[in-house]
């Protein structure tokens, strides 16, 4: 399964190749409770075909109904859903949620196709970019990303940060790693599993073939970008420690290893003494991994791991949970 945003771009490219006008939508902001985060994408055709999601169903129906009635023909506009009591009753947005959506109407053209190809390459690549849309002309350009909020509306332009799909790199196979793969796939992550042990050869994890290579070698090859989470879940230092030593030298946003506090303290000492890691590099490693949910079973531990990965990815501090 591909990351949902990449599915949207792929579908938009297919429809442009087939000569269709498309409506390209981006969630700009949410107020109250909303099912999709800022930056979520949807692409649609005038006949009601669509890919992606804005809200999980209710807003999509309203949006497609507007298309069917011949509305939303401007090159670019911002549409708000859920502002009035009638909206909230009709759309069934939870807890008074409000969505602000950027809607772009594009006819098939070489320029638009080229822009989509650049978006596709960015989602498949290593670096984040900034997508800037001019609200007066509808033109869009891609610029170097300088950090900041996922989306930003100011003056007559919208800035949207885009980047590679969230990647989970499983450094070794274990029951917890298998459960993590299932959760990660459900979240729309790209999942990669590496394990050189003979008994793991040819194994599938949630439909993903295990790559017969040391995770450390795979990581050293340039496999980690800034949307990569590396999780070491085998309890085998030959796999876990080497993977951690390489991961801290990458821009991966999350690096974690399974083990008790006592085991984690011993690992930290070993990584410093044998691996030559600095205190700052060791601080990057989440040890013990995951949120403290009192987890016991592999599925429960995997849930705590993926919850912590998502927490860090969304920029949430532990003390605000």
UniProtKB/TrEMBL annotation:
Domain of life: Bacteria
Domain XdhC Rossmann: 168-309
Ranges where the XdhC- CoxI domain occurs: 15-81
Short name of one Pfam family: XdhC_CoxI
Family annotation (Gene3D superfamilies): NAD(P)-binding Rossmann-like Domain
PANTHER family assigned to the protein according to its UniProt record, in alphabetical order: ALDEHYDE OXIDOREDUCTASE MOLYBDENUM COFACTOR ASSEMBLY PROTEIN, MOLYBDENUM COFACTOR INSERTION CHAPERONE PAOD
Protein name: Xanthine dehydrogenase accessory factor
Organism whose genome encodes this protein: Stutzerimonas xanthomarina
